[in-house]
Write a structure and sequence with these properties.
Two copies of one chain form a homodimer. By secondary structure, chain A is α/β, with parallel strands linked by helices. Chain A has 15 helices and 17 strands. In chain A, strands 3, 4, 5, 8, 9, 10, 11, 12 and 13 form a nine-stranded mixed beta sheet that branches. In chain A, strands 6-2-1-7-16-15 form a six-stranded mixed beta sheet, covered by helices on one side. The longest helix of chain A has 26 residues. Chain A starts with a strand and ends in a 15-residue tail after the last helix. At the A-B interface, helix 11 and helix 15 of A face helix 11 and helix 15 of B.
Chain lengths: 419, 419
Amino acid sequence: MTKRIAIIGAGTAGLHLGLLLRQHDIPVTIITDRKPADMASGRLLNTVAHHHVTLAREKALGIDHWPAEEYGYFGHDHYVGGPQPMQFWGSFSQPSRAVDYRIYLPQLMNDFVERGGDIRYQQVTESQVSDLSREFDLIVVGTGKGVFGQMFKHITELSPYEKPQRALCVGLYKGVAPTQPRSTAMSSAPGQGELIAIPTLTFSGMSTALLMENVHGGDLEVLARLNYEADPNAFLDTLLAKLEKHHPTVYERIDQNVFDLCQPLDILQGGVVPTVRQPYTELANGRFAIAVGDVQSVVDPVVGQGANMASYSAWVLGHAIINEAVYDKRFCEKVERERQDRILAASKWTNAMLAPPSEAFLSLLAAMEQNQDIRDEFTENFSFPERQWDRLASDERIHAWLAEAGAFSQESVPQSQMA
Amino acid sequence: MTKRIAIIGAGTAGLHLGLLLRQHDIPVTIITDRKPADMASGRLLNTVAHHHVTLAREKALGIDHWPAEEYGYFGHDHYVGGPQPMQFWGSFSQPSRAVDYRIYLPQLMNDFVERGGDIRYQQVTESQVSDLSREFDLIVVGTGKGVFGQMFKHITELSPYEKPQRALCVGLYKGVAPTQPRSTAMSSAPGQGELIAIPTLTFSGMSTALLMENVHGGDLEVLARLNYEADPNAFLDTLLAKLEKHHPTVYERIDQNVFDLCQPLDILQGGVVPTVRQPYTELANGRFAIAVGDVQSVVDPVVGQGANMASYSAWVLGHAIINEAVYDKRFCEKVERERQDRILAASKWTNAMLAPPSEAFLSLLAAMEQNQDIRDEFTENFSFPERQWDRLASDERIHAWLAEAGAFSQESVPQSQMA
């Protein structure tokens, strides 16, 4: 029984898995078409926070190059607009941390190669898949690009949306004052969308990622289309005007004399269709390909779960590879059963946050403003989406949480405030 | 949040669940159309062995009226016929035990009522389901009879067979000498089927259940159709002739002067279509019905998993009811995720045992004859079907097991010996 593992894609899932397997001297080959230098000099890839469960895996892998104590943040500053705005702060038990992936991924690729990992820089065509399945005992797929995206079918009942639910405009900005203690702002403009302002380590040092989640057809949607490069000042003026109107607590932190992208390529616009796919597939020769990361489940970034699920999925899969000898259908089923709860909970919770809030959820927000235990649990659960979903999966569960916490169920909060 | 639980059906799943909930003072109503006295005086219901994990649950429930030390058996006597017959004995870590369900179920119904459980004797029509869903917070369905069978849809990919795979003829017999130590005989006649001879506590004391699993179109199939009542001697003569030819090690234990059914109704003939169904369903008012036992997964009795899975499923569900406050879709998903591995493994393993054996499985049988560790693990795993399936799910796994145990992979055993 040999353990020859191929990983397609050098994202968080592929690299955390590759590094874990190298810790156990298992031969592993990562196949990617993105060279570290091209990645580092290219456009912003995303804005990603690693929560403490993910940081703990990084420590275990010996890749904690950016300690959270120095670069991290300690909780969420919530602001919910409307006629009677709500504002509250929720604490993590341990800090989260965001690093520009154009710094993060090349460093991990370097670590991987230094530890005996093999990287092949190539695109994989359909005809090469059967060669790979002869050469390797298991193919791990961490990218949905090209032939591999089609290998794993959509699961319709877990993929409720056919279009992006937010028009995204994400960038790295200078001129946004940090909060004390350092925190991520979660500003919600009822009917218009969300702004997540994340303290992020960038090529320019610590700056702020503004992740704008704009409702389609709303006042902020234009930000996902405005061309920064064509007219930087027009872009920034529009952005500032929108922030002032819809996200005042972040707007107040901005020094307009300095406010700008850190670098010209520090902006990304577009949208994500939340999609859950079949977690594994049998190849023509009877071997298996198993999905990790965005191939298995891609989520909107609104509650910052994507990269954390990718790392978690890689971790579960990696330990199964280490502990098991045979990589057959039963192996894939067991891996899936072990990781599925957290991954699907992250997807369901994220999708629920994109939908208009229920009366029960509005009651919960009102209770969070009053009750430290509830808001801290909600915040801590960014590391444990399955626990968050245990709390939020139905209105009945939310009411049970409020009752358990001794909070009033404030059913008088008007629906219109958040719709 | 109230906990009002209805259980439809008074089989092993329903009664173990009901008794567990009563231990925790949770109000529970069992609804069944079978009165204990009718059951006790009726035809044989089945032949069922409880393995030690199930017996441990009975102890925890305080219903161990038939201690395994006294009534149980300690392992499996295997006989595999063919040109070169194989014979070997595998040990349990702790004994299994079989009691006629016409004794077992009425006793547990009595225990349940004594402990404050409510039993309603009625059939449930379709129109009554909505009344029940208003009266109870959760409906547990443990019978596939009537309206409830249709509520849970077949899962096609887990239900590979459309017809029974064996023509069954099961009966309780006197005149079969027990083995020393007491054991269940598992006799396999290649191409013809299996005979499982189970030491069983009956209304006549300890006797022997002969569970004949006859291949359709084979020499033994007639036993599933022969009418005992019409001509007992003809039935017994035919049975003896077939046993002599196909199951010689059990035949040798028979005293022909005494051999007969213990009582006239101690025989049941027919077949089972192995079927896995959706584990839960949403009712019209938003409450849920969740399946246990045969409704969720009905298996052929060949490896004695049905009742043990019913008890296990009830146990997982019962603890979830005790620990959780809300019985919504998330609740059902979590229960299902927790119990699914063992229950589906039992189904897949059972189905695999009904199919013609692979070369790898024949090698395993040959290795079992030589290697005590392998045959004991195979035997012990009757309590842990998920571990059995870890060993048997693919030929690659069987070869890995043989390699791990240092056994030769005897690929020379001819396929024809078991087909």
